[in-house]
Amino acid sequence: MSVVINTNSAATSAAYNLSNTNVNLQKSLSRLSSGYRINNSSDDAGGLAVSMKMSAAIRRTDATSANVGNAISFLQTQDGVMKTADKVLNRLSELATLSLDVTKTTDDRALYNREFSALKDQLVAMEDEAFNGISLFSVDPALVTSGEASLTVLTSEDGATQSVDISKANIGFINETTLDLTDITTYTGAEAAVAAVRTGIENLAQLRAQNGAEQSRLSFSADMLAVNKTNLEAANSRIIDVDVASESTQLARYNILQQAGTAMLAQANQATQSILRLLQ
């Protein structure tokens, strides 16, 4: 190997290796300080693209879960109103039965009818109950039949591929078909009221059963969303999160290489000093 002054190949090689070590050391420090394996698109272009899609899916899943939870609250509020309506109907049935007492006078039945009429008005008022401005009930049977009285709840983060329809129950039948024509001031009217209220209770029971079925289905949908989110987060973590134990080992390695590279660059720079002895 020739001895030259202008070119120090050993120093150039040592400087190149030291530069690469410094770059890797900075990357390692950046990963450990941020907690992410990918801090720049150049770190892993493909992995970053996949992670971005997964992160968006996780956010959509969170939003969908919130929507499903609100739909469950809607149904729970609806069921609470129907539970109160059930109590009202039971009291109406009781009043109508009391009016069937043969020992009751017309005046007595008129007294029972006052409370009976007031409770009917309360049932009518329940039809206007709403949840965040959205009506809980539909009083138009035609809308119920056509399906326009239902609300569609998306249960998947990727759009309308999965959904559940929840009903805006029709409690208007209580007044439209039965109690509007019912009066318990007479024995005959009380008999008709007992039959009408019994029918109302049976129909209300069916509505509450439908409500419960819809709540149950939405609860399972919420569970599935929670499972999907957990798995998406785990998959995304494997792509973008740094393995602290492994990266700490790499940091120690690069620190040693940096110290060794600095020492070797100094040695390479000193190597040309021996040429001076040849010139003396």
Compact overview of the structure:
The protein has 2 domains: 9-36 and 241-279; 60-239, f41 fragment of flagellin, N-terminal domain. The chain has helices at 9-34, 45-98, 106-126, 141-146, 173-178, 187-240, 244-271, 275-279; strands at 130-131, 134-135, 150-154, 163-167.
Second rung of CATH, namely the architecture of the largest domain: Up-down Bundle
Annotation, overall tally of beta strands: 4
CATH superfamily of the largest domain: f41 fragment of flagellin, N-terminal domain
Query: Count the helices. How many?
Result: 8
Cα-atom radius of gyration: 39 Å
Walkthrough of the structure:
The protein has 2 domains: 9-36 and 241-279; 60-239, f41 fragment of flagellin, N-terminal domain (Up-down Bundle), CATH 1.20.1330. By secondary structure, the chain is mainly alpha-helical. The strands form 2 sheets. It has a two-stranded antiparallel sheet. Strands 3-4 form a two-stranded antiparallel ribbon. It has 8 helices and 4 strands. The chain has helices at residues 9-34, 45-98, 106-126, 141-146, 173-178, 187-240, 244-271, 275-279; strands at residues 130-131, 134-135, 150-154, 163-167. The longest helix has 54 residues, at 45-98. α1 (9-34) packs antiparallel against α7, α2 packs antiparallel against α3 and α2 packs antiparallel against α6 (187-240). The mean pLDDT is 87. The radius of gyration is 39 Å and the shape is rod-shaped.
